[in-house]
Queue: 2 jobs
Job 1
Amino acid sequence: MSALLTALTTVLIGVGAPDPAEADIVWIANGEFCEPETVLPLPDNTLLVSNVCGFREPGSGFLSLLSADGQVLDWRILEGLDAPLGMALLGGRLHVVDNNHLRIFSWPGYEPLETIALETSVANDIAVAPDGRVFVTDTARHQVIELRPDGTQSVFTGKSQFKGANGIALHNNHLYIGGDRLWRVDLRSHLVETVGPEWLANIDGIEFESDGTLQVTPVSGPLVRYRSEHDIEILAGEGISSANHGYAANLNLALIPTGFDNSVIAISIASDDSQSGGEADTKTRWESASAAYSALEQFSGHWRGSGQGKWGTSSTVKVFSPVLDGKAMCRGGSSVYPVQERNPKGEVHKAHSLMALIKGGDELALTEYDNEGFIAHYGLDLSSSKANESWVFELVSSENLPPDFRARLTLHSPRDDQFTETLELDFNGDGYVLYLTNQLSRVSQGAAGQGCLVEK
């Protein structure tokens, strides 16, 4: 890191911050951005970028879509907005904060579903809880507005106490709010705590890595990775001047929108293991198949979300339920594919599976049955799975499938209210290709005794 960049970082962050490290920049996207404000990673590993393009100039704002490697897929996948700022995706509903309105679109498809006038002065960023509650920062009034599913709005915590309220994120039943400082609020008790040293201020972007590491970006500043007050890393580099950044856990990338510099910069976060495939570090592996099975309890309940894969996009429902007096975990699912270009007739795919310990508890098996007549027997690959985060199942044998067919199913759950499910296939020995990704959010917790029943 050059002395000049170190000095500039000190000016932006403040005295007392650790010296910055050189960020590992993977790619930089330039072109037709217009004041890019927020990057939202999507379940299909594409990246959505909001472009303000003249604050509150009616109709000038738009959203751009990038590929995982920074190539432009569509400069204006959605246009005609006023000043799109924060974005969030829950299931198949894309939420966009736009000039004191919440605009909700279908995802994928980007069809308008609903527009809600917000009781805000300068609505900025957004977080959406699995139960449907929406939290929006109001920068001018130094507060957060809570929008409930019944349509009512109120000031979160009942008062204005978050000076310069800007970025916002949900994590483990806490709401993190960035502004002049970084605050953490217990969603149940509304207890407010300040997080981090005094120099950690003017916070815009807030994201979480799978191990709980907190990522924040001060306005026009570098990327800060915070684990504790004694374990903080600053990643800086030429051109890194962030607005509301995003973090793509599947890609191990922090995505930095540079506002008036009109670019998006991807920074590699090397310490975050990929969600499937590679061998996990021995310190992070499951101690045993039994430990991996016991931890599946965290999935118990109902989940809803969306899928993206070879046969198009789908709306997906999952339920996990302990059965047989806890000796097995049932996983049921239903995915509805509407009529679309990659699926001109549409279809409904259903699958039920049982996960249980076998061979005296030394192995964890998953057997899946689906409505197309396929039966697949998987075993947990402990060397590729990561304790308390991922379960990687490799196909052991199958029925009604080609003999040389291979498959890998991964459950990846970095947060207790969200998980990602991926299916990779190898048809002819050429290696795995990604076939399907489902991203799901918790609807309710606990489903004991229900078995594999899912909603139609």
Job 2
Amino acid sequence: MPKDELKATDATLQGLLEGERLYLAPILQRRFVWTRKELDELWDDIDQIMQGVDKSRFLGALVLQHRSGGLAFEPNTYWIIDGQQRLTTLYLLLLVVVELSEQRGRTKRLAADLQQVLLNQSNQHKNEPKLRPTNSDLRQFGDVLKQVESVTIAIPEAVGHYLGRLRNMHEMLRGDLEQRLEEEGSSYLSRLADLVLMKLKFVQILTSDDENPHQVFDRLNNAGQRLQIVDLVRNAVFQKFGGRVADQETFYNTSWKPFEDEMDEAIDGYFFPFALIHKPSTTQAQVFGDLKARWRNVSAPDILEELKRYVPEYLALARGGSIPIGCGSSEVTGRRSS
């Protein structure tokens, strides 16, 4: 496929999960962020089909990049450039269907069938999930997978936060589905599984093999995707590595992840005051553009060192403490007023 050419095809979850597959959320992706609002919208789409109002519902585009595959016993691996939230939520929903089917004798066959859909079956990758969220969510995802009792799933390594929105989504899905089963009966599980697999439609967009996924991510944001500033900054930093995936992963695990973990939920508010230090005329709407211009010829490690410079002061203020003595607070004040 020529560079910059995007191949778009219609897709269902059944087709996406057919055969040996791995859908991987790369480092550039943000954590899982969907809440009750997005889940209610998904249930509305499902109910419209269940009630016969629509035959199917369109859930938008999935932008994927094919990373590996074709070798014997290896799953076809795709990076999820856009659509991680939808794909993860639907995968979690089918996992909940499996969990509840296991508890009901008449629907145990459904649980076994869905395991074939959700887990790889080749010997080398037996029972590995076909979806892998971004690293920050892997611990939550692994805990969710442990809820499936009838098969020993190959659990990803336990990294990331123990609590978070991915775990919350699983709990909400389970609560909602248990309530629906009380109203509809056990047959609702098989009808729901068929609907999710076959009647929720996507446009699958495959980027070319040599397309820079960070640039695709950047273009999607410019086209109107709503992302937090930390997602854009992370993407800009990891663009510096080009296609050097091993270097990206090493830098993420040894340097970038500890930085995000230290900042925790305070991180998204950090970049505006940080940008003001270096350009007092910036606005919130201009922050990312100004930072990206500042870092045009700066390496990823040097960007991170610059970002870390004012973290102690910022966290002290953000968390209601006092500014640590000797951390350069006078320099911060002086630069803001210059």
